[in-house]
Design brief:
Elements: E1 3-8, H1 19-25, E2 31-32, E3 35-36, E4 46-53, E5 57-71, E6 85-91, E7 98-104, E8 109-114, E9 121-122, H2 125-128, E10 132-135, E11 142-158, E12 174-182, E13 191-193, E14 211-215
């Protein structure tokens, strides 16, 4: 099982566009997201991510290079996993409820919670509006563009976004999590993870295969 330390940053930040520069200043390193779990889907885009936290939020940045890119979905809680999509699944509470935060390449987000793949509850509009996003490709939807493309997204995820819990701090916490890159409906579908997944068919909703992240 992979493990990762998550740096605590004292600076207050409210604009997701400034997340990359802040993480640079704080020397937060990128992590490779490069595990291909299923032989039927061998394509592996070049994906890196980095994560930090503040007094009231998680900061997350992804950097991607892939052979095509799509952003069909422009409204939150749509089928963003079918687009060029990066994802963060975590268990921030002390129960079996995990959150799936999925973000396409223009910063459209899906956020769900539940204890299994088939019992997901989506966050409401008020919660979604608290998640700050920035994308290097802008925020307007577009159909698939074939050809090597590099893009980045950055997110500020307040602890209040974990709407099934009352989380005020992650200081000193060890939590289970995994990070993903997918594109179910792209010309070259792919399903890549940070921590390996040991099942026969693509499925990210498997907390038993989450890694461990340690919050300062």
């Amino acid at each position: 099982m992979k493990e990762l330390k998550v740096k605590k940053i004292s600076e207050t930040i409210t604009d997701a566009a400034t997340v990359p520069a802040l993480l640079d200043k704080e020397n937060v390193a990128f992590q490779a997201l490069d595990v291909v779990n299923w032989e039927a889907y061998p394509y592996k885009p070049d994906v890196k991510f980095r994560i930090a936290h503040t007094e009231n939020a998680i900061l997350l940045q992804y950097r991607v290079k892939e052979s095509s890119v799509r952003a069909k979905y422009g409204n939150d809680n749509g089928s963003v996993w079918t687009d060029s999509c990066v994802e963060f699944f975590l268990i921030p509470g002390k129960d079996d409820v995990y959150y799936n935060l999925e973000c396409n390449c223009i910063g459209t987000v899906l956020l769900g919670a539940g204890s299994g793949r088939n019992d997901r509850e989506h966050a409401g509009t008020e919660v979604m509006e608290t998640i700050q996003r920035w994308s290097s490709l802008g925020r307007e939807p577009f159909e698939e563009r074939i050809g090597d493309t590099e893009w980045e997204v950055a997110l500020i995820i307040p602890y209040s976004a974990f709407f099934k819990h009352q989380i005020t701090s992650l200081d000193g916490r060890d939590i289970r999590a995994n990070f993903y890159k997918c594109g179910d409906e792209l010309k070259t579908p792919h399903f890549v993870s940070w921590n390996p997944i040991g099942v026969e068919n693509p499925n990210f909703h498997l907390p038993e295969y989450f890694g461990m992240i340690h919050f300062e």
